[in-house]
Amino acid sequence: MTQTPAELEQRHQAFIHTYNTTAHQGLLKDRRVPPIPVAVLGTAKGRVCPQDELAHVFSQGLFPRTTNRHGCVTLHSYHFYVEAGLPQTQVLLWVSGEHLRAAFENVVLAEYHCRYDWRDHQVKDIHGGVFYPTRFVSSQGTLIPLTPKESLVVYRPKSRRRRSPRLATMPQLLLFEIVPTG
Hints:
The protein is α+β, with helices and mostly antiparallel strands. It folds into two domains: 1-46, no CATH class; 47-155, no CATH class. It contains four helices and eight strands. It has helices at residues 5-20, 25-29, 37-41, 51-59, and strands spanning 62-66, 72-75, 78-81, 90-96, 99-104, 107-117, 122-131, 154-155.
């Protein structure tokens, strides 16, 4: 409903003012008098954190990745779909709670359930993809659109052992032979 960031900020401030000065349903149920958030919270404001501190705290769950030509990315040995309309594009993967979100230009493209070990800083499981309609949809379209049940997450464990060199290479056998019939 706005055209510029300044208008957005004005609308947001108006919303906050209206919210804080209007009776709140939850406070009505609690029989608070008055049931207005600003009266209940008083002058409590929270604390303001420096931008670099916030970036450090939240950076542990942020992972920039580049999609392949099919719109898939890899994160900690898990390979999964994000958006086919953004081939070879850097997207941001964001882990929050049990959710893994893929975003581009502040637009959420896909969301998965995940288990993230904050001690090891590793994803332990990704499943259940949800794909959102966005303006980045491929102009070619898809023959069969993906659904959450059809989303496929492939786990590719890292190989710990080195492959031994092959001693002798065998020639490829033909599956069938083409014979001139003329």
